[in-house]
């Protein structure tokens, strides 16, 4: 959920005071944001610290953003009760959560973060975030296959949105989606009598897999 609110509104809710009282605290410089007294009704960010008379109203939070290569055979879950879970292979001391999913037999780019705004921006349909995949199938593909994949396939009772599909060789293609239907590419290929042998996500929005190998990662700044 996106977090951006005026300091005055934050103080009203946090201290259970009136709008007038909240504004007076601000104008008198009694509120410190990230260690500095402020004198105007600024917009707060999720990571800002807010202090009033040595009382911490909101702690400053450091955000981390990681591009991680999820290997094949790992479930995209932090639940340690599930076999082959993601939590057991992550090397981070920070509590990071995955943005989106990759099914167990798929591999490639997974974004990990503790910033809920990234989750919101990436997954909400109105943002139309592109996800790019490299796919290898078990049968030769032709222009008819590429055309049908591009125009949309009826899966799970709906027609998939038009997407960009480009043939790489007789058994491989690149596909760029803005949807996130469960196992979408595998279901689309199955409807065209093709089984996916390998599926690698190589890009989410502006974040690319790059030279990462399975289990490898890099930090980035959004």
Number of helices: 5
- Coarse morphology: elongated
How far apart the termini lie comes to 17 Å
List SSEs in N-to-C order: EHHEEEEEEEEHEHEEEEHEEE
Helix content: 10-25%
Let me know the CATH homologous superfamily of the largest domain. Pseudouridine synthase
CATH architect. name of the largest domain: 2-Layer Sandwich
- Computed structural class: alpha+beta
What's the rounded overall pLDDT mean? 92
CATH fold title of the largest domain: Pseudouridine synthase
Count of DSSP E strands? 17
- Cα radius of gyration in angstroms: 23 Å
Share of residues in strands: 25-35%
Largest sheet report: 9 strands, mixed
CATH class descriptor of the largest domain: Alpha Beta
- Number of domain units: 2
Q: pLDDT below 50 for ≥5 consecutive residues: which ranges? A: none
Task: Spell out the key features of this protein.
5 helices; 2 domains; 17 strands; 222 residues; nine-stranded mixed β-sheet; 19% helix; alpha+beta; Structural Genomics Hypothetical 15.5 Kd Protein In mrcA-pckA Intergenic Region, Chain A
Verbal overview:
With 222 residues, the chain is α+β, with helices and mostly antiparallel strands. It folds into 2 domains: 4-58, Roll (Structural Genomics Hypothetical 15.5 Kd Protein In mrcA-pckA Intergenic Region, Chain A), CATH 3.10.290.10; 65-219, 2-Layer Sandwich (Pseudouridine synthase), CATH 3.30.2350.10. It is built from 5 helices and 17 strands. It has helices at 7-15, 19-27, 116-123, 143-151, 184-191, and strands at 4-6, 31-33, 36-37, 43-45, 50-52, 55-58, 65-70, 97-99, 107-113, 131-137, 154-155, 158-159, 164-169, 172-177, 196-204, 207-208, 217-219. The strands form 4 sheets. Strands 7, 8, 9, 10, 13, 14, 15, 16 and 17 form a 9-stranded mixed β-sheet that branches. α1 packs across α2 (19-27). It is elongated and about 75 Å long. The mean pLDDT is 92.
